[in-house]
Amino acid sequence: MRQRRRTWQTLLATTATLTVAAVALTGCGGTATDAGSSPKAAASFEGKGPINYVSNRDASGAANKTIEEWNAAHPNEKVTFIELPDSADQQRQQLIQNAQIKLDTFSVLNLDVVWTSEFAANKWILPLPDDAIPTDTMIPATVNAATYRDSLVGAPYYTDGALFYFRQDLLTAAGIAAPPKTWDEMKAACEKILALPEAAGMSCYTGQFDKNEALTVNFAEAVASAGGTVVDAEGKPTVSTAEAKAGLNLLVNGFKDGMFPSDAITYLEEQGRRAFQDGKLVFMRNWPFLHASLSATDGSSKVAGKFDITSIPGTDGPGVSTLGGRSLAISPFTPNKATALEFVKFFTSEEQAQKRLALSSRAPVYASLFEDPAVVAKRPFFPTLLTSLNNAQPRPKVVQYGATTKAIQEEAYAAITGAKDTDTALNDMQAKLTELTK
Amino acid sequence: MTTTTAPSAGPQTGTPQPATPRKRGNRSPGEGRMAAMLLSPTILVLALVIVYPLLSAVHQSLFRAETGLDADGFVSEVESFVGLANYADLFVGESGRRFLNAFANTTFFTVTTVFLETVLGLCLALAMNRAFRGRSFLRASILVPWAVPTAVSGLLWRWIFQSDGIANNLLGSEILWTAEGNASKLAVIIAEVWKTAPFIGLLVLAGMQIIPGEVYEAAKIDGAGWWRQLGSITLPLVKPTLLVAVLFRMLDALRMFDLPFVLIGPGKESVETLSMLAWDESNQLRYGSASAFAVMLFLYVAVVAIVFVKVLGADVTGAKELKRISKKSRIKATRTQKAEATR
Fold it and tell me: Is residue A59 part of a domain?
């Protein structure tokens, strides 16, 4: 008898659990038809108490240090770190699903700069009060990336820009005094260098050309460096222009002329790093985080001490970098908005940014921190990076960023693989983007 | 004994109905209620985890969110009922092109990988079925590819297939496996077959192990060679197991997602499958068309499963076995009844 009762209890418990799971699942899949409460009412930033900070993993532990410091000073307004998966797609999906069901557990969100418009337009994040964030001391591009339609919706947290890595030893050997500032200079330099006996078997340049978000970055940089834009200030696509064509042609011709290694079409950051590190490339566009492994002196890098960095090349002068990085935003569904705002201010303050510098290699958003001699001694690329960031542009600021970057990748990839000619690819891209930004 | 009853089963197959009511009548009234009660949690769970999500997906696929921006730049979303428009869109324009491409890829991968892994799996099973030293070691090591999570094996093969990777080194070639094109299709097929042939191999091995050794001894005495034994004994006797294994693999291959996603990357048209397409659509927050893709995939899988079971007679649910047993007991019952009547 007892045996049977237990079986029934197990069955009931299982059924109940599955019911809950199924309801939760369907809740996540549903579409929120109304896009949240009115922004004015929500933007009053009231309520104090514990909150949750939702973010990607921070391997350096620097973010945790800041949170510990906050928690020690605010025992009644403790912050809990909720860690999201490593993949940016999955992070975005979880954040969106929680916003769609208006879950109040996600208070402060760590957003990639390209999600800003989408989250702001859907009212999944709150506009921040004027003067809450010291934007005048921050690098303008990072503030621009956290702004949606003239209102600041995120507090810039860290940033990232392109660096141009080059082989100083080979430049010297070929008798070239200064690193190239334009694509033409780069081409001329390559011709000289590749003729040297010590450059046998090398290629000239690579960026990241696999069909991936990185291709959007490289395409946007090429277009901006040629004086064009992908979308204009009103958010309308502008890729069927002569400038955009000149930009894309730089990449297309790079493959055609053999300036880029033919397998660069499969390169992401890592493959490019390996090729450069093994001494197969003269020039490379990549992110700052590679600097440490390229200068490793343990024998893993064949180019340690032989390379240098500068800004990426453009058409007439230095090129325009695209901006990476993250900002912190506040969910309108959290009850403790006052605490959330205070925490965001604390977390993104210059003081905390400076403390994090000792632990994390992520670049701060305060320009003043790039020139501290102690910091520069540890991270010699910081002054160059600051130049790059001062000249940087955000990626297309559109609400449907996911579909936009897909369309850009699709067409740019077709052009550089030779499946479409530049004009057709750009016209098709313009048509697709027009449809998406309607 | 049993062999004599088998032929007489033939003409009776057309009339199973009269037997059923009598059987039901034999049951005590409490028995049916008990059965229903015992089954109800299962049915409830199935309804919750299968029927409800399915109906919800079908429902969702009839709607479309028309997003636009208002004057302040905020999203004004109107979700309107569009009937079957999401389905009609699967065959026209840009989304139609992507759908048909994904459909063709899914079918191509299913046919090629399942064929190759069946052949390879059979060979593995034949090799493992022979008695030799270290057989258990071989069996365990063959299981390794199947035990590796698909996403991890995707990464592993990505490393092998990168432009300066092992594959190109061995072949002395410069094939760009992970770029768009036929090479990427081949890369997916190779990785998928490597991963799943052991599954078929082990299932078929289990089928082979239950073939009694006397059958082979008798065949040997009759002078049958290895090929003859394979064709006349092994293959026919493992056929039921093999069919179930192939069906499982086909249903799995039709849902293929993580291997091409990790190995080649999302958004690469030459390897985009229906699951990847549905994922991509839902990632763009277009739940209506994503549901339509998912429902189409569900229907495709269902049709393939039904056709496979009907045409090739794979005994997945054990229904045939059940029928045979019930038939046997029925015949026994009629016999005893007849015997009683004559007495």
Answer: yes
